[in-house]
Amino acid sequence: MWFPFIKRSPVSPVPPHSRFLDEKGKGFFFLLLYSCMDYAQRRVHPSDVEAAMETASAYPSKYVMLNNSNSSSVRPPPQRRNIPRYHSNHHHSHGHCCLKCVCCCLCVLIVVIIVLASLLAALYVTLNPKMPQYNIESFEVNAFTMDPDFSLYTEFVVVVKSNNPNKDIAFTYGKDSSVVVAYSDSTLCSGKLPAFHQPFENTTMIRVVLTGKSEFGSGLQEALMDNKETGRIPLLVIVKAPISVMIKSLALRQFMVNVNCSLVVDNLAPNKRVRILSSTYTYAFEGITLQI
């Protein structure tokens, strides 16, 4: 191996023993030189150590080892600390608004119901409304003729007593009314109530003329004859009338009143006094049924 920095000068020949020593000295020198170079490469200068520390502080390591015995003393670097997250409250605020609207609507509805209930209660106490009363005062038979073709011609006169016991409520009876008299589900005659106005605390007698001709088979004739013999003939009087309610001078809506009267009379002989043995009344106001 040739080292350019070693200058060789001509020497005189040496004995063999000296040559051997010289070669061993060269080998030791080379070994020492190699060791020095290796040490120089691995040696770190103090200034290099400070630069390395500054570099390490500028670029922290990605991982931090925590010691369980002294974990409170180790803190993450400032740039690695957890930044608090601020979530948007848009959906929560929207739901809050909807809930507030629903609560407000319910509160308003409850208040309206309470106010209406209070007004109705006060109106009921003030007016003290009572249902009008209807009774059949008399029942007359003007005609009850059986023809050879099994048809029956009848003419009845019914007097209905209408009583209005209310102090501040009046009734107006419309034109589209009807009165029907039936026997064993067969219509005998029919007519209409007159249209009239019934004021406060008033009793009115209504005279209704009913006429009709109907098919009357042998079976009905036999049943009617049996009832005549026993002196108890059942009849059904059906009255339908449109009535308008007036509170003082305020007119309310019109509704239909149905009155069914089950009568039991002693006879149906023409021009003879007819006695009413029993009567049962059933009232219906727009689907509400009352029985007296």
What does this structure look like?
By secondary structure, the chain is of the alpha+beta class. It has a domain at about 130-285: Immunoglobulin-like. It is built from four helices and eleven strands; from the N terminus they run αααβββββββαββββ. The chain has helices at about 15-40, 45-60, 90-125, 220-230; strands spanning about 135-145, 150-165, 170-175, 180-185, 185-190, 195-200, 200-215, 235-245, 250-265, 275-285, 290. The strands form two sheets. Strands 3, 4, 5, 6, 8, 9, 10 and 11 form an eight-stranded antiparallel beta sheet that branches. It has a three-stranded antiparallel beta sheet with strand order 1-2-7, with no helix packed on it. A hairpin with a 2-residue loop joins strand 4 and strand 5. The radius of gyration is 61 Å and the shape is elongated.
Q: Please count the helical segments.
A: 4
Fraction of residues in β-strands: 35-45%
Q: Using the alpha-carbon principal axes, give the shape.
A: elongated
CATH topology of the domain at 132-286: Immunoglobulin-like
Percentage of residues in helical conformation: 25-40%
Order of helices and strands: HHHEEEEEEEHEEEE
CATH class of the domain at 132-286: Mainly Beta
Report the radius of gyration as a whole number of Å.
61 Å
Distance between the ends: 143 Å
Q: Profile the largest sheet.
A: 8 strands, antiparallel
Please identify the structural class as seen in this structure. alpha+beta
Task: Give the mean pLDDT.
Answer: 75
- Architecture per CATH nomenclature, i.e. the level-2 architecture of the domain at 132-286: Sandwich
Poorly predicted regions: 1-29
* Number of distinct beta strands: 11
